[in-house]
Write a structure and sequence with these properties.
By secondary structure, the protein is of the alpha+beta class. The chain has one helix spanning about 65-75; strands at about 1-10, 15-20, 30-35, 45, 50-55. The strands form two sheets. The chain has a three-stranded antiparallel sheet, with no helix packed on it.
Length: about 80
């Protein structure tokens, strides 16, 4: 059994990672191809032709109003009460 990444032709996006028997009677979707993924590759990654590239980490959400008030108060910039 081999671990393979199902990669979209046009974009190089990894749609899925599967384990498939060498003699399996399974058809690859027309708009995809398989890449060996024994040690790397996960859905959401991109295959650049040589290696799998992880997407950038999502940016942190901006602080809430309450979090901003706490910071301002702790720095003696804002006085409440």
């Amino acid at each position: 059994m081999a671990r393979k990444a199902l990669v979209e032709n046009d974009t190089g996006h990894v749609l899925n990672v599967i384990e498939v028997e060498d003699d399996a009677n399974w058809s690859i979707p027309d708009d995809c191809y398989l890449v060996g993924a024994t040690k790397a590759g996960a859905p959401g990654d991109t295959w650049d032709g040589r290696k799998f590239v992880h997407p950038p980490a999502p940016k942190a959400a901006p602080p809430t109003l309450e979090e901003r008030v706490v910071v301002l108060e702790s720095n003696w910039i804002l006085k409440t009460a």
